[in-house]
Amino acid sequence: MEDVIKVTQLSKSYGSQKAVSELELSVKKGTVFGLLGANGAGKSTAIECILGTKKADQGQVLILGLNPVRDRKSLFQKIGVQFQENCYQTEILVSELCEETACLYQSPADWKSLCSEFGLSGKYKSPVKNLSGGERQKLFIVMALIPNPQVVFLDELTTGLDAKARRDVWKILSELKRRGLTIFLTSHFMDEVEALCDQICILKEGRAVFYGTVGQAKQFSGCEDFEEAYLALSGEEDEIG
């Protein structure tokens, strides 16, 4: 399988603080990749540098063979991005937001079908501000899929969803993966990571401390349970203790 995302020697500092240090990773077409780590481990900075919204100090990034800074306009049509913090006008209707977003892309997906898949078909005329936290989170995932992307970046995609809604989202993403979509995600839910991710990278203080599969993480850490393996590898276990 071809590399959809290729990151080589990526580093970013803020003054004397090294946020990301010599990060290397690759994501294959049609797979789900999880970037994990405690708060402050460097996940957000790494993603921003990968997407080109933040300038790295050194290293190279290619997404679909394109440089995210130099080829930003071309890449914009091929990727979808969902972040936890979004700056949409709260008074805008769901239908207006979806229609306006679809207009930005050359071959957008059918936003009504996406809303239906995510249980939002009855919310077209609702202002974004009137949506529940879970509904808003689903809408932001829909927004990331409207470009009909080849690769999508999802940040804490099921935060605010109840157990059933989370599993419904997992099923949809698994089907999208089956159709060839490449998914790059972050999550603090280890059951989610275990259910969805083909490969993971765990960051600790900006450095990759593990890269491989969930099974390999358990073997490497000596833990039978993946959450325990993650806590041991990420250093969060020490913080809790």
Automatic annotation (TrEMBL):
CDD domains assigned to the protein according to its UniProt record, in alphabetical order: ABC_DR_subfamily_A (cd03230)
Pfam families, sorted: ABC_tran
GO MF terms held by the record: ATP binding; ATP hydrolysis activity
Stored InterPro entries: AAA+_ATPase, ABC_transporter-like_ATP-bd, ABC_transporter-like_CS, ABC_transporter_ATP-binding, P-loop_NTPase
Keywords: ATP-binding, Nucleotide-binding, Transport
SUPFAM superfamilies given in the database record: P-loop containing nucleoside triphosphate hydrolases
Residue span(s) of domain ABC transporter: 5-230
Family: Belongs to the ABC transporter superfamily.
Name of the molecule in the record: ABC-2 type transport system ATP-binding protein
